[in-house]
Predict the structure.
Amino acid sequence: MIRDTLRDVPTSSEARCWRGALAGLAFGGALACSRGAPAPTQRAAPDLNDVSAFAPFTDGTVLSYDTESDRAGRGVIVLQVRRPRPELVELDDGGHVERIYVSEQGLRYATGGHWLKAPLREGACWAGRAGQVCITSVSETVQVPAGELTGCVVTIERVEGVTDGARTRTVFCPGVGMALLEVEGWAEDAPVRERAALRYAGPRVELNLPPP
């Protein structure tokens, strides 16, 4: 959901590197919350057969990510979370909406393919949006702007039909959701890297500034 960046990082074979987790968001999007907000609080160790522990999408909250791009530099993206039905999540970046179906068994894109799927064990694989997704760790510790997060699940998705190394690495943490997204691909025969790291997850903070 990173419009014109993660979604459109082409490979040297003209295939897109990633059409998944953040396809549609723009680097440098307007802030919808305070960058100084407290880090999310993690819960006790989850059941690795229950994916919903890694997808705590709460209606009316926001997810803010610091981004880095070889092409676009640094920026911020913000997702607004809507939950019209218990099984359906809508992630809105201010116009582009990604719909995901949530259950204990997995996070499934409305357009097909799974973002995350049980059982959460190393070596487990499934069909993602762009290619095969495999779990490489279920005990990762990551440091992001939101803080240090532990007990995280790491997945790697490799684009089907591409041999030049295009891949997406996603880190999901219990009680938090997606904490880190790293994309590697090619653009104009040069390697390109994109990164989004969680800064804030919680209620939307309205900034009521006085008129100028």
Q: What stands out?
A: The first strand starts at residue 61 and ends at 69.
